[in-house]
Amino acid sequence: MTVSIAHLSDPHIATGPLAGAPAEGLARALGRVLTLDPQPDCVVITGDLVDRATPESYRALREVIDRFPLPLYLVAGNHDDHRVLLEEFADSRFLGDGAQAHYAVDCPTFTLVVLDSSVPQSPGGRLGASQLAWLDEVLARRPELPAVVCLHHPPIAVGIPFFDGMRSDDGEDLADLLTRHGNVVRVVAGHVHRPITAAFAGSILATAPSTHLQSGLALRGGVPNYLPDPTSFLLHLVSGASCVTHTVSVSHAAAPIACL
Fold first, then answer.
1. H or E segment and range at residue 63
2. How many angstroms separate the CA atoms of 113 and 115, rounded?
3. Which of 93, 84, 91, 46 is CA-nearest to residue 65?
4. Residue 104 forms beta bridges with which residues?
5. pLDDT in tens, 35-46
6. Which of 42, 71, 203, 225 has an alpha carbon 20 to 30 Å from 97's alpha carbon atom?
């Protein structure tokens, strides 16, 4: 049986005069998800859910996603505040049990693990010893089923100096842990506003583009320009121990979009 996971990232939902474009970008991507046949088993949005972590911004996010009919799970990023996120979504279906910003969803044929790599007042990320210990227990709980691990900050350098300076700084600890578990078929992330793939800890790391603005390929350094390039998301197809990832275009004339 093949399981499919739609992987969106970095919507940067806002409030005020500039709120329209980010909300439209996320709504359009979710509408594109609904046109897939078959529809995905679930959707994950890997962080930077909002641009400024205010209650009003998370309520604006909720307005976009509340009517979405498929299971949808949220990941905290560096633009998020996990305390405010939990306050606004603790009673919802979007954060697992709602007690922590890291959680696991035990689906019948796979495990979705959401990590919280956000660090207050920092653009960089860190998981920390206690969260890694929790992850170790979760992955050991159902070793016979494939697991997809989600976080915001990439745990390795991706070749863009601006982002490499703000990756998850305990990525080596994460890699050491994941190599002890043979059931991790994908590690999925966001943060870089670009689709990037790399070998990682016996699996594959895949970062999703933003549903709003894409980053320039600033390989020589400097701040990447954030550009209104065409948007897309990733679709991970999991079948037993294998996983295939497709890129699904969103913001172009031929893409069918469903209404939410």
1. helix 55-65
2. 7
3. 93
4. 113
5. 999 999 999 999
6. 203
